[in-house]
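Newbie here. two chains, one complex. Structure please?
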Amino acid sequence: MRFWAFYRRELLIEFRSGVESFIPVVFFLLVVGTFAFTLHSVFTGDSRVLVSVIWITTLFTSVLSLDKLFKRDHADGTLAVAVLHRDAITTTVVTKLIAHWSVTGIPITILGPTVGLLSGLQIDHALMLGFTLLIGTPTITMLGALVTALLVGLGRGGELLTVLILPLYIPTLLFGISVCHLHIESASYTSELLWCFALLTGSTTAIPLALGPVLKMSQDS
Amino acid sequence: MSLVAGETIELRGPNGCGKSTLLRIMAGLQQPDSGDIARYVDPIGYLGHKFGLASILTVQENLRWTSTLIGSKLDTTRARELLETFELRTEMSKLIQELSAGQKRRCSFVCLLIGNYKLWLLDEPFSSLDSRGEKLVRELIEEHCRKGGSAVIASHSASPIAQAVQVELGIG
């Protein structure tokens, strides 16, 4: 009951924020769209470039959207109230991350392959791209949330966030792109895909548990 | 310094003497530079300088969130009664950002009551409140302690809370 109540609240906040919540997805479409129009001949010649562009844009979109993840709650004092409820903080954080992924990760997972198809990507390659984004975007959200939680107490988190977060994203990016490239080349991608799953499993199990104490610590700054 | 059930401590002192910091340390939101603190109640009802209300949710949605935090379902009858007491009955469906500062403070108190916390840590609880609101909050704190609850209050108010132990803090 608690999970759904929190999830409903987080979705309500996301939707009531209006345009602000959907700017990252619009940014993603604009960047990928710009590349698709300007480098169309490159994309049709080598679809590996296209999937790389979509993956890299996904990372930058994530940085853009994660900056505000805990900022509003910190500003209005609800984050302080939440961290004082030790038995509820993990559920609060998990639902916040799922809601965030629902409004950014899911649209990107759908739009990425769609833009790929429109730019000449074969359907099976587009499906593999969608699949890697489906298992890659939650990992990106989790890793980003950890850094955002550490920086929430600081006034100038935005600039630091970009510098700190991108190196953490590199393994997810490399394995995600590798799976797509190897699939396009009809080579074996099992080990890379297993690494993607390992990163997903590790981040979704460990990070939500760490976020409660990290957020409490960030109240001290 | 110790606090037992039914007791109220009122922290007084000039700006910058550490009243808010002490409250945050008591709440567990901040670590002390030295010394220890032991808490035997959990969770704690903390009301800081910020209202602790989600600005783009309605009054009712914020009350529901508080109930969910403590693991219960919102008792709508009690919520209506409390909103009536705090003269917020007609604001129930309004977004927090549409309320005045005084109304937000009142709403924070409704959340505090919905939370059924044993220990209240209140930082400047009378700020933004008019004289009626201040009187209401004073009565509320006194009633909370009569019922066995405890409160620590950081206040600048000229008149102290009845029955409260006054602790004067200084700078340096």
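Moderator note: Chain A has one domain: 2-11+18-220. The CA atoms of residues 101 and 187 of chain A lie 31 Å apart. Thread marked as resolved.
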